[in-house]
Specification:
The complex is a heterotetramer, with two copies of chain A and two copies of chain B.
Chain A: H1 20-24, H2 27-52, H3 67-74, E1 82-84, H4 90-95, H5 100-107, H6 141-154, E2 161-166, H7 173-184, E3 189-195, E4 198-199, E5 202-203, H8 204-207, E6 224-228, H9 232-247, E7 253-258, H10 276-285, H11 288-298, H12 304-327
Parallel strand pairs in A: 1-2, 2-3, 3-7, 6-7
Antiparallel strand pairs in A: 4-5
Chain B: E1 5-9, H1 10-24, E2 28-32, H2 48-52, E3 57-59, H3 64-77, E4 80-84, H4 95-102, H5 105-108, E5 118-123, H6 138-142, E6 148-150, H7 155-167, E7 172-177, E8 184-188, E9 200-203, E10 208-212, H8 215-229, E11 234-238, E12 241-243, H9 247-257, E13 260-267, H10 272-281, E14 294-298, H11 307-312, H12 317-329
Parallel strand pairs in B: 2-3, 2-4, 4-5, 5-7, 6-7, 10-11, 10-13, 13-14
Antiparallel strand pairs in B: 1-8, 6-12, 9-11
Helix pairs in contact in B: 1-7, 3-4, 8-12
Classes of the chains: A alpha/beta, B alpha/beta.
Bound molecules: thiamine diphosphate (2 copies) and magnesium ion (2 copies).
Chain lengths: 345, 332, 345, 332
C-alpha cells in the first residue's frame, strides 16, 4: 500500500511544473499505481469473461474507465484508513490493496473469497486493507463512513474514512444527512463522488438540480472540489489535500471526480440512454490508463518495455487468480447459517 | 367475457395492465427509477415511455423516500400514481412514507382523504443478487392496517389485480417475484379485474392443504404432482392477498383436509405463514386439525450470494414434497 | 380566505415607501389577517388551558410567537392552493382558513373535529381549505407537498403547494430529496422553513452545517430568501413572489422565516437549552402581533378601538369554539375501525 | 450476587445500565435526538450528559437514517453506540440502515466484521400521541435475521438486558413501552445481565398459558389475579425476546396447560402472537392442545387519538380476562 510517508522518499521526478504525484511520490509508488490500474481493468475484464462463461452468477457493475478515480483517491491513504465503497466497487477494493485471488474466489462463490462466498461482487470487501465493503444500496455507505470517522475521532486513531459514491447516490437522503453530520461534528472523512454522468440510465441533468455535485458542498460548509477523474495526478492531489485536512482535524471535504464507465450499468443494459459517440469519445480520447502511461513516459519515469512488463505480470496475476478461484472449495450447504450472528465462546 | 386469451409473460401482463389503466384514465402515471428509456430494471415498463411520454412515465432520481412520498402526495391530490421500487429491498428506505403516511393518512384525517397509490415491489431470491437485493418483505407491509398487500402468482392474476389496485381508493402494495417475470400464462385481452382479498384454490385435494404465495405456488403445484404419483392428494391454495387475508377459503379447505402446510419465501419467523398458521389455529378449523401446522419458509439468514446456498435458503420442491409426505403420513 | 385577486382591489394605503402588504391588499384583508393572527394565538392559549385542565390529552406543540409566518405565507394563497403542515401546525391551519370550532372539537377528541377525533393536534387538517394536514413525522410533509405540486402541474389546475417545515426538519433526508425533485421537475411548490432556532432542544448551530437554511437553496438551483418571520409584510412579500413564480411555471422556491416560539417544544420541556433572556427578548421586542398592530396604527389603517374590537370578537369565537367542542359527541367505540379503508359502495 | 436492591423506575434502570456500561468501557457512546441537555424525550438519558459530556452523549440532528447509519459505521469500526430513536415509529425512516446494513453486514462479509450496535425504540400507545407516535413495530425487526430483538417488561430486566445488549457483538434492538418508563420495581445495584433469548415464567399456573410481551405482561398478570379469584389458574410467561424466541419455555408450558393465549400490543395480524401461535402449532405441543390458540393483539387500525378509542385499540385487562375465561371454560 502507498503510505503518506512514501511522499517523504525521493520523488520520481524534479521540476516545479510537474503534476502533483510526480513531485510527491517515488517511482515505485507511481509504477505500483499503474500496475493497480491495470489490475483493476484486467480483473474486471476477467470477471466479465467469467460471467459470460457462466462461472459467475448474479450481476456485476464494472468500473472500466474509472480506474484513475479509484487509484488516485486511495494513493494518499494508509492501510489503516478505511473506505466504504459502492456496487461499482471492484476498483476501490483493488486500489485499497485487496488480493485479486480472493476477489475472484468471492465472485465464484467460494469459501476462500473475501466474503466466504456469501457476498459476491456487490458486497466485495477486504477489511484487512481497510475496505469496509461495497454496498448494494445506493448511498448505503455514506452514513457508515461517517460512523467510521466518528470512531477515528473518538478513539483518536488518526485514521481517515473515505466514502465513495456515485452521482446518482447524491440524490439520496442519506447523502444529505451524512454530509451534514460529518460537517457539524468536523469528522475526518472524505466524500468522493464518482460522477460518471449517469445513475443507471438517468443523466445527472435529469436527476440532479445542480450543475456539479461538488456545488452541493457549500450546503454543508465543506470544501467541494471538481477534478478530472481520468487524470490520476489530479485525483490524487485532491485526495491528498482532503485527507491531510481530515487528519489535521479540520473536517470533511467533498471531491467530485468527473469520469465515465465504458460498460453498461450492469449485466442488463440495453444502452438506450447514451450515444455511441459519447462512449467512443471517452474511450478514445480520455482513457485514464493511457493518459497516465503517456505521462509516465513523457516525464521519463517508465519506458515502454517496463510498462509492457507490468501488463504481463498483471495478466499472470489475473490468470492465477482465476485458477485459484476455480480450484477453491464451495461452501457447504450445512454452513448456510454461519456468520448470521457472531459465534461466541 | 369473451376477450381473446393469449400467452403473455408475467411482466408483459403487468405492462399491459398499466397501459390499459393509462389509456383509460389520464390521472394514472408511472413513477420509478429507470422506468423510462431504460424500461425498468426488469423491463416491466419496457417501451411504455414511447407511448405515453416522459410526463406519464417518470424517471425519478434515486430517492426512494422522496419518490414514494411524491407519489403519496400526488395520490391524495388527484393523480393515480403507480410507483415502482427497483427492488423490494429499497422499501426499507421508504417505510416512513408507506407506513406512517400513506397507510394512515385517511384514518388520521377522519376519512377526509383517500390515498389511491399503487406501489410495485420486485422481490425474492434466485438471481444471485445477494442479501440486499433478494428479500421478500411482504410480511412487513402485511402487518400495517391501511394498506392492502397482494402477491399475484400468475400473469392472469397480476394483470387483473393490478387493474383492481389502480381502481382501489386505498394504497395497494404489489409484491412481484423476480423469477415470475418471464413465466408465461394465459391472459385475456382488455380490461378485467381479479379481486383483492380472495385466495384461489389452484388444485383440489383431500389429504393436505398447502397455502402458498407467489413463486411458491408453482413449486407447491409441482410438489403436488409428485405426491399425486405417490397417491397423496394435495390441495394447493394460492393466497394472492396478504392483507386482507382470505380467511374463509383457507379455513374451508383445512376443514376438508385436516392438515395445513404453509409455503412462503419470506423469512420463516414472523413471515406470512406465521399469520396463516395462527389464523387457522384460532379458528373453528382447529378442531379439524389432525396434525401440527407445518411452515416452510425462508431460512433465518440473509440471502447468500453463492447459488447453492441461495437455493438452500428458500423452500424448494424436494423439501416441499418431503415435508408434505411426512405430514400426510403422520411422521410428524 | 385572502385571494390573490384581492390585491386588485383598492390597496389599504397609498405611498411608495409603504411595506408590501399595505400597497397590495385592501383594508379588509389586512384586518382579516390581524384577526387571524389573534385567533391563532388565542386558539393556542385556549388549547393550552384546556390541556392543563385535562380536557385535552396527548401533547401539543404551540406556535405562539410565530403567527406572522403562518399568516404571511398564507396571505397570497387561494382556497384551492394546498399546504402541508407540521407538528406545530395550528397556526397554518387557521391561517389557511380552518374553523376553530372544529379544531377544538378535534383536540377534544370529538366526532365533530376535523379528523373525527382520530387525529388530534398532531394531525390537524382541513382539506376543504386546502390544508392536507399537520404531520407527526418531522419532514414527512415535504415529499407530499411535492406530490401535490406534481398533481397541479400534471392536471394543470393552477394550484400552488406550500410546504411548511422547521429548521430541524431541514436535516432530514426527505428535505433533500423533496427539494431536488421539485427543482428538477420545476414544480409549483414553495418550501417554507420556519426557523425558530431550535429543533426541540437542538440549536441550528449544533445541528445544521450552514448558517442559514435558505443557503441550501443553491444546492437545488432555486431561489432562497431569508425574511424576518415576525414581520407580516416581509413574509407575505416573499410568499407572494414565490407563489407567483410557481404559478408562472418557473418552479420552486425556498423561504426561510426567522422566528421564535415562546413556549417549550411540547408539553414536556424542562427548558434547559435556551436562556430566559433570549425568550424575554423575543417576547418583549419582536412580537409579531404587536409589531403588526403598531404598523396598522402607524399607517392609519386601524385605530386602537378597532383592534380592541377584533380582540373581543376573537375571544368570543374562542369561547364559542370551546363550548362547541365540549358539547360535541365523542366517537363510538364501535366505530374504531372506520376510516382505515375507504368505504366503497 | 449480593448487590443491594432498590426500587427504580424502568427509565432509571435504563439510565443506570447506560451509565454502568459507559463507566466500564470508553467505547460506549450514546447517540440520539435531544438526549443531551434535554435529557431525551422521555427523560431516559436524563442528566447523563453532565457526567459523560457531549462527546459521549451526542445529540444528533433530526436525521434518523443517517444517525442510525453513523451508529452502524461506528460499531463496525470499534465503538459501541447505543442509539435512541425518539419514538419507535421513526424506525420507519431508518429501516435501510437497520435491516439492509446492520443486520446483514456480518453475513455479507462472510464473518469479517461484527456490528455491536444497540438501538432503543420507545414504542406503544396510551399517551394520546396518535397514529404516528404510538406504534409497536417489534414484529418488523423480529422478522429480520441478523438482529436480536428484545422487549423487557420490568426495570430489573431492562437493566440486565441492556447490559447484555451492550456486551453482545451483534445488533440488538430494544423495544421499550412508553407506559413502562414510570413503572417501578426492584433493581440490583451494579453490573448484571439478563440473557437475551430467555423467556421468564412470571406466574405459574395449570389451566392456561398466557404468553405476553412488554406492557401486556402486567395486564396479563392483573388478569390472572382476577381469574384466580374465579378459580382459574393461569400461567403467565413474559416473552422478553422476540428474536431469537424461547421455544422451549413456551412449549413446556403449553404441554403442561394445554391451552395458549398470546397477548401483545402490536397489530394482531403478523404480530408477535402470530409467530408464537405458529411456533406452538408446529411443535410437539400441538398434540397437547385442548383448544384453539387465541391471540389478543392490537386492532387492525392505526392508533387513534381519542383516548377511549385508543384504549379500545389494544388489549385491556377485562378483555384478557374474558378471553381467558372463555378459553379455559371451552366456550371456544
Ligand atoms: C437505494 C437503491 N436504489 C436503487 C438501486 C438500484 N441501482 C443500483 S446502481 C444504481 C445507479 C447508481 O448510480 P450512481 O450512484 O451514479 O453510481 P454508478 O452506477 O453510476 O457508478 C441504481 C439505481 C440501489 N441499488 N439502491
Ligand atoms: C422523524 C421525526 N423525528 C423526530 C421527531 C420528534 N420531534 C418532533 S418535533 C421535533 C423538533 C422539530 O424541530 P423543527 O423542525 O425545527 O420544528 P419546531 O418544533 O421547531 O417547530 C422533533 C425532534 C419526529 N416527530 N419525527
Ligand atoms: Mg453514476
Ligand atoms: Mg425549529
Amino acid at each position: 500500500m502507498a503510505k503518506t510517508t512514501a511522499a517523504k522518499a525521493a520523488p520520481a521526478a524534479e521540476g516545479g511544473n510537474l503534476p502533483f504525484i510526480y513531485r510527491e511520490y517515488p517511482r515505485e509508488t507511481l509504477l505500483g499505481a499503474l500496475r493497480k490500474m491495470h489490475l483493476i481493468r484486467k480483473f474486471e475484464e476477467g470477471a466479465e469473461e467469467s460471467y459470460m462463461r457462466g462461472l459467475i452468477h448474479g450481476t456485476m457493475h464494472l468500473s472500466i474507465g474509472q480506474e484513475a478515480s479509484a487509484m488516485g483517491i486511495c494513493l494518499p491513504l494508509t492501510n489503516d484508513d478505511q473506505i466504504t465503497s459502492t456496487h461499482r466497487g471492484h476498483g476501490h477494493c483493488i486500489a485499497k490493496g485487496a488480493d485479486v485471488k480472493r476477489m475472484f474466489a468471492e465472485f465464484f462463490g467460494k469459501t476462500t473469497g473475501y466474503c466466504a462466498g456469501r457476498g459476491g461482487s456487490m458486497h466485495i470487501a477486504d477489511v484487512t486493507t481497510g475496505n469496509l465493503g461495497a454496498n448494494g444500496i445506493v448511498g448505503g455507505g455514506l452514513p457508515i463512513a461517517v460512523g467510521a470517522a466518528l470512531t477515528a475521532k473518538r478513539l483518536k486513531t488518526g485514521k481517515v474514512a473515505v466514502c465513495f459514491f456515485g452521482d446518482g447516490a447524491n440524490n439520496e437522503g442519506a447523502f444529505h444527512e451524512a454530509l451534514n453530520m460529518a460537517s457539524v461534528w468536523k469528522l475526518p472523512v472524505v466524500f468522493v463522488c464518482e460522477n460518471n454522468k449517469y445513475g443507471m440510465s438517468t443523466s445527472t441533468e435529469r436527476s440532479t438540480a445542480v450543475a456539479n455535485i461538488a456545488d452541493r458542498a457549500a450546503a454543508y460548509s465543506m470544501p467541494g472540489v471538481i477534478v478530472d477523474g481520468n487524470v490520476l495526478s489530479d485525483v490524487a492531489e485532491a485526495s491528498h489535500a482532503a485527507v491531510e485536512r481530515a487528519r489535521r482535524g479540520e473536517g470533511p471535504s467533498l471531491i467530485e471526480c468527473k469520469t465515465y464507465r465504458y460498460r453498461g450499468h450492469s449485466k442488463s443494459d440495453r444502452n438506450r440512454y447514451r450515444t455511441k459517440d459519447e462512449i467512443d469519445d471517452w474511450m478514445s480520447n480520455r482513457d485514464p490508463i493511457e493518459r497516465y502511461e503517456a505521462q509516465l513516459v513523457e516525464f521519463g519515469i517508465a519506458k515502454a518495455d517496463e510498462i509492457e512488463a507490468i501488463r504481463a505480470s498483471v495478466a499472470e496475476e489475473i490468470a492465477a487468480g482465476i485458477e485459484f478461484a476455480k480450484a477453491s472449495p464451495a461452501p457447504e450447504i450445512a454452513d448456510l447459517a454461519n456468520y448470521v450472528y457472531t459465534e461466541q465462546a | 367475457m369473451d376477450a381473446a386469451v393469449r400467452e403473455l409473460s408475467y411482466s408483459q401482463a403487468i405492462q399491459e395492465a398499466m397501459a390499459i389503466a393509462m389509456e383509460a384514465d389520464e390521472r394514472v402515471i408511472l413513477m420509478g427509477e429507470d422506468i423510462g428509456v431504460y424500461g425498468g430494471a426488469f423491463q416491466v415498463t419496457g417501451d411504455l415511455i414511447d407511448r405515453f411520454g416522459p410526463d406519464r412515465v417518470m424517471d425519478t432520481p434515486i430517492s426512494e423516500l422522496g419518490g414514494a412520498g411524491v407519489a403519496v402526495g400526488a395520490a391524495v391530490t388527484g393523480l393515480r400514481p403507480i410507483f415502482e421500487f427497483q427492488f423490494s429491498d429499497f422499501a426499507a428506505l421508504a417505510m416512513e412514507q408507506i407506513v406512517n403516511q400513506a397507510a394512515k393518512m385517511r384514518y388520521m384525517l377522519g376519512g377526509a382523504v383517500s390515498v389511491p397509490v399503487v406501489m410495485r415491489f420486485p422481490g425474492g431470491s434466485g438471481t444471485g443478487a445477494a442479501a440486499q437485493h433478494s428479500q421478500s418483505l411482504e410480511a412487513w407491509l402485511g402487518h400495517v392496517p391501511g394498506l392492502k398487500v397482494i402477491q399475484p402468482a400468475t400473469p392472469h392474476d397480476v394483470k387483473g389485480m393490478l387493474l383492481a389496485a389502480v381502481a382501489d381508493p386505498d394504497p395497494v402494495m404489489i409484491f412481484e417475484h423476480k423469477l415470475l417475470y418471464k413465466m408465461k400464462g394465459p391472459v385475456p385481452e382488455g380490461h378485467y379485474t381479479v379481486p383483492i382479498g380472495k385466495a384461489e384454490v389452484r388444485r383440489e385435494g383431500r389429504d393436505l392443504t398447502v397455502v402458498a404465495t407467489s413463486l411458491m405456488v408453482h413449486k407447491a403445484l409441482e410438489a403436488a404432482e409428485t405426491l399425486a404419483a405417490e397417491g397423496m392428494d394435495v390441495e394447493v391454495i394460492d393466497l394472492r392477498t396478504i392483507r386482507p387475508m382470505d380467511r374463509e377459503t383457507v379455513i374451508e379447505s383445512v376443514k376438508k383436509t385436516s392438515r395445513l402446510m404453509c409455503v412462503y419465501e419470506g423469512v420463516k419467523t414472523l413471515g406470512v405463514g406465521a399469520e396463516l398458521s395462527a389464523m387457522v389455529a384460532e379458528s373453528e378449523a382447529f378442531d379439524y386439525l389432525d396434525a401440527p401446522i407445518v411452515r416452510l419458509g425462508g431460512a433465518e439468514t440473509p440471502i447468500p450470494y453463492n447459488p447453492e446456498l441461495e437455493k438452500a435458503a428458500v423452500p424448494q420442491v424436494p423439501g416441499i414434497v418431503a415435508a408434505a409426505r411426512d405430514l400426510i403420513r403422520g411422521a410428524r
